[in-house]
Write a structure and sequence with these properties.
Elements lengths: L1 H19 L19 E2 L15 E2 L3
């Protein structure tokens, strides 16, 4: 998990540098939070913001 967060920090630093030098201009940037019930597993968002229903699994509450 530490490696993933370190990698994400590096990607964010590279993205910010590209914005600062004027090479890259993001059209939008969204941060989404997904609140789900404890009896749902595998819930994740697709790139377009929709829930990936093919991976949702219901478990006993």
């Amino acid at each position: 998990m530490v490696l993933v967060s370190l990698r994400l920090e590096h990607f964010q630093a590279i993205e910010q540098w590209l914005v600062d030098v004027g090479v890259y201009r993001p059209l939008w940037q969204n941060r989404q939070q997904l609140n789900i019930r404890s009896h749902l597993n595998g819930v994740s968002l697709l790139a377009n913001g929709w829930i990936d229903f093919s991976r949702v699994v219901f478990s006993s509450p």
